[in-house]
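Internal tracking record. Fields below are filled automatically when a chain is submitted to the structure queue. Please do not edit lines marked as system-generated. If the sequence contains nonstandard residues, flag them in the REMARKS field before resubmitting.
Queue: standard
Priority: normal
Entity type: single polypeptide chain
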Amino acid sequence: MIPLFRPSYDEQELDALRAVFDSHWLGLGPRTAEFEEKLAEYLGVKYVVALNSATAALHLALAALNIKKGDEVIVPSLTFISPAHAVMYCDATPVFVDVDPITLLADIDDVSSKITDRTQAIIHVHYAGRVENIEPLRKLAGDIPIVEDAAHAMGAEYNHQKGGTFGKIGCFSFHAVKNLAAGDGGALVTGSKEIYDKTVRMRWLGIDKSTWVRASDGKKETSYSWQYHVKEIGFKYHMNDINAALGLSQLKKLDRNNKKRTILATRYHQLLSGITDLQLPPADTDKIQSSWHLYAVQTAHRDKLIEHLKAAGIATGVHYYPIHLYDCYSDTPTLPITEKAGDQVMSLPMYPDMTLVEQDIVCNSIQSFFTT
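SYSTEM-GENERATED OUTPUT FOLLOWS
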């Protein structure tokens, strides 16, 4: 079976895990702190808060912005469920917007039409790893904070700046199938010291000092290593050193692995470009370098093509079923382009260790479907 995703692991990840196990510190500790430091350096940001998921990052981002009941947050519907749920966790209202039919990123004109005096944030999703529309969105948003959902965009760039670093807050995923696969985990990044301080407390139940900080703080006459204060109600959202160790190893390989994804994406374009019933994603440009987390195509024959590829031993995915059509959000307005994409979009196998032979098998099988 040719899988849809597969993490690129080798002895480096095993060595990193052994070092953590040998240290006997598995929770929130020195590896997590090191991962935050290295990730901040890679992204070119001031502050990184390592968490247990991108969902946690989105929730803390909105909480740090004081999103509350009565507020509205703009969210594209063609994405994973997390951004909308994060809005609901804050007792606010997600306002769903349509997407561009080619890029599948939020349609800026629809965003403009949905902004009201209750709009307190905009979540901008870098679908499939493509960072685009960020300049017109920032101009449109004005003082409305932008939260970047960069779960797909680890290492992606727009005009040589890393995705996730354009808005007030950026949110990343390190789930097992992501470009930086730490088994699971996420991160919140920001240039705001105030947001950083607040989210560091909130990720650890509102406690002002983590166990690691207290253990390594050095004893002082006025304080004890066991003593801490709880200043607010928080959550148990922190990363642990097992995931951080995998993250550190994966970060060293990220650019190399993303280059492999770019090669695969370029070959998909070359091998599939002649199929008129198959819409391919936009290619990279001088300004836009996708991380190619997904290679998402669109076809009116999506469901039959999925079955055809499955019979050939090829796994595919659907990213995504529109959020506004789920039962818990089903009273929202129709979004015609999103709904059409939800019926036609499918993801082809994409992972760094995919061989060209495997890719040829995928493409040959797709070509055979459209020629029979």
